[in-house]
Write a structure and sequence with these properties.
This protein is mainly alpha-helical and 147 residues long. It has one domain. It is built from three helices and no strands. The longest helix has 55 residues.
Amino acid sequence: MTVNPKTDSAADVNPFRDLTKTFEQFKMPGVDTKAFFDARRKDVEALVAANKVTYEALQALAKTQTDMLTQAMQGMQESAKGAMAVDTKGGDKTRHAEVAQKAWQKMLADMKQLAEIVTKAQVEAMAGLTQRAKDSIDEMKGAAHTK
């Protein structure tokens, strides 16, 4: 099946259409081909939804990492400016130690935030796929009882 994005709408593009027609020609007894292909369509929809969640999480992760890098670069720039300034009271070591400690704490918080984004995306994607698997088992049980 050749898809032309200029002439075919999303509703016209059904990857199962040709396969459905092929199976309908054989009319296998005891097999509801429409129900079978509806279930497979739902499987594909669940995978698409899981991929969408993953894609959105990756976008959020990239944006967060970009923001973190920007903040880190600004912090390094401010620290460099502070290092160049002469402190006549000898407070440079204390100030640099405080800056280093804050940078370390910020890095740990950032790592935690990134891990939370990834974990949330994994939980959402797996929840959708798990639900689809349960629904698919229920559909198979239902099909077995009706025939």
